[in-house]
Amino acid sequence: MAVQRSDTLIGDEVVRTLGAQGRFSQVLAQVSEGEVTLSGDVPDAAAKRQAEAAVAAIEGVRGVRSHLNIDGGSHSFGPRGRAVRDNPDGSDATRRAGIDLDEND
């Protein structure tokens, strides 16, 4: 009978596995009872499949739910695979939240 790994240990390995690849820097993972939920952005369909397969191969993972989006650059700026998220509508999120970081009060 296989020993069940804790969600914390699985999560640590997910982070190490995905972190070893720069193309997964926008991927978030949640682990609950061995089920891993992936969300965030990847640069292409191949990266999406690779992330899902790499996580599924981790010892103790009972399943992978993928909510990964393929970001071809339309919602970000920077080189493909190393894109940085931005407000696509150009609005200033800090002002919308009622915070002005430029105030000197």
UniProtKB/TrEMBL annotation:
Gene3D superfamilies named in the record: 3.30.1340.30
Pfam name, any one: BON
Endpoints of the signal sequence: none
UniProt domain BON: residue ranges: 6-72
The organism's place on the tree of life at top rank: Bacteria
Basic and acidic residues: bias regions: 83-99
Region (Disordered): 70-105
InterPro entries: BON_dom
Name this protein carries in UniProt: BON domain protein
Biological source species: Stenotrophomonas acidaminiphila
Native organism taxonomy: Bacteria, Pseudomonadati, Pseudomonadota, Gammaproteobacteria, Lysobacterales
